[in-house]
Amino acid sequence: MLAFTSPALTFAPLNASEPGAVPPAVGRVEAPVPRLPSLLPGEAAVPAPVRIARPAAVSVDLGARFDAALDAARTVGGAYGVTAAIVRDGTLAWSGAIGRSRDGLTALSPTSPMVIGSVTKTFVAAAILQLVDEGRIALSDPVRDHLPQLRHVSRDITVQQLLDHTSGLADLFNDTTREGLEEDPSRSWTADEVLATVRDPWYEPGDGWAYANTNYFLLGLLVEAVSQAPLADELNRRFMGPIGLGATSVLDGTAAGSPLAPAWTTIFWGSGAMAASAVDLARWGDALYAGGLLAPATRASMLDVNSHDYGLGVQRIEVGDVTGYGHTGLLNTYTTLLFHVPDEGVTVALLVNRSHVDLGGMLTAEPSGGPSLLELALGD
Questions:
Q1: Which of 100, 305, 317, 380 has the smallest C-beta neighbourhood within 10 Å, fewest atoms?
Q2: What confidence tens digit (pLDDT) does each residue in 172-228 have?
Q3: What CATH number is attached to the domain comprising 179?
């Protein structure tokens, strides 16, 4: 059974809608927003992040409690393997791993890269918002001002409407791409081929909300058009290099041992085809939500969520009575959570090599009455 990039509406088991179904004009949650997501000529310098997570010492007793909580989380998720990391106030407070990779042989570590699915959107959105800070694009710009070749895309769709999923564009995960993923996963798709499969819009731009991977595929093309660099190179220059995210990459499916075949990486691309380690992902969340990657006003606009708990590449997430920001991801056989709790200065990354797991249940699973991963993360 295929799984695809999608957020979750609540922290219950993920329940993605069947691809290809036409959503209501307003408020379709395809896979839901969690309540529990060398410089080129004339290019502005990229701001260096303020917060860089560094390891902190963990006592033997606390380490054992984290290990027990991680084991309980894996049991709830029924996963082959789970990796997790916690950054607190810019410091890597803890990281851990349990189980094996999908090959059933390789033991996981907190620095093992795994597919992050729609958490990819946080990287693409951050690149777009940095371009806004640099004055190279505006949120109100019609997308076709920068991508005139997109003749099938309405001239009324703006950059902001791609970021917050109010463009009305139908999802690129449909019967045609599903068939391609199932029948020939080794085939690389061109952008034109992917976009040619997208069906008629679900509604007029700005008239509703519906989560669609197409929006972030187009934003990936926009990053390339404005920066005049491949998306992978631009994300490396802006984020992976400056922050030191050595286990984070945009996947192309051609490298030996790639966790995704070429069809998956080329169809989902800027909407979901990245891999990262738990340590890298927690550091990324801390830099994005609590660091200096974006101007304060831009970060505030990013976090201004709508009635569907979605902002500009970010979701409002609730887990029990804990509220924060981040994004969930689901692609192929991987489920991911990036969760930042601003009131506590805590960022949690949870990567699972199984699809459709109960992320909230995993975070709050208590081993024999002991504290859960979330309680330990918050210092409870």
A1: 380
A2: 999 999 999 999 999 999 999 999 999 999 999 999 999 999 999 999 999 999 999
A3: 3.40.710.10
The whole-angstrom separation of Cα 261 and Cα 234 is 22
Q: What is the DSSP letter of 34?
A: P
Determine the Cα–Cα distance for residues 18 and 231; give it in Å rounded to an integer. Answer: 29
Report which DSSP code applies to 376: H
For residue 152, the one-letter residue type is H
Report if residue 273 sits inside a domain.
yes
Q: Express each pLDDT in 243-276 by its tens digit.
A: 999 999 999 988 888 999 999 999 999 999 999 9
pLDDT in tens, 285-344: 999 999 899 999 999 999 999 999 999 999 999 998 999 999 999 999 999 999 999 999
Give Dmax (Cα) for the chain: 61
DSSP 262-303: HHHHHHHHHHH-EEE-HHHHHHHHHHHHHSSSS-HHHHHHHT
Does 199 map to a domain?
yes
In this structure, the number of other CB atoms found within 10 A of the CB of residue 252 comes to 16
Q: How far is CA 149 from CA 85, 110, 152, 154, 195, in A?
A: 42, 42, 9, 12, 12
Sheet containing 81-88, strands listed edge to edge, beginning at the edge strand earlier in sequence:
54-55, 91-99, 81-88, 346-352, 334-341, 322-331, 315-319
Strand order in the sheet with 274-276: 114-115, 274-276, 249-250
Task: Find the DSSP H helices in the chain.
Answer: 60-77, 120-133, 159-163, 175-183, 191-196, 213-227, 231-235, 241-243, 262-272, 278-290, 296-302, 359-364, 373-377
Q: Is residue 347 part of a domain?
A: no
Kindly report the pTM of this predicted structure: 0.87
